[in-house]
Amino acid sequence: MADFLILAEAAHAGAEQHAEATAFGLAPPWYVALSMVALLGIIVYMKVPALVASMLDKKIAGIREMLDDAAKLRAEAEALRQEYTDKIAKLEKDAAVMLDHAGQEAKAIVAKAEVDAANVIARREKIAEDKIAAAERAAVEELRVLAADAAAAAARDLIGANHSADADKALVDQAIGQI
Question: Which of 6, 124, 131, 177 lies at a 20 to 30 A Cα distance from 160?
């Protein structure tokens, strides 16, 4: 510290001495202080702090209003989100019910188709059996006709070969006698 004082004295000794300007016995720093006090007095007299406070109050009120609006919007958004969540849950439930109902209808359709197919098969079997029976009856009738024709032809040939006119007369007389 001693070194600093020596240097300060040396610098002070070597420097020129200036006379400091004063007015009314006051140095320049006092004028700056007085002008600041006057400026602050004017600011207070003109009610600048009140104006600044009212501007800040308006700004605060605007921000509060914006916050209130944001809170309302958030509440509305939450309500909409809840509404859509409820709608989605209801739609999922409805979709599950529809899917279940569709499954039941599909089972019923399959069961009905199986019954209908069985009925169609039974009808077609019955029709086929009827056709087969009709064909059998026709074949039997045709065989009877053929057998009767063959028997008549055979009888005609036998009778023609084994009987003469005299034998026929005796058989005719015998048949008449039995009547």
Answer: 177
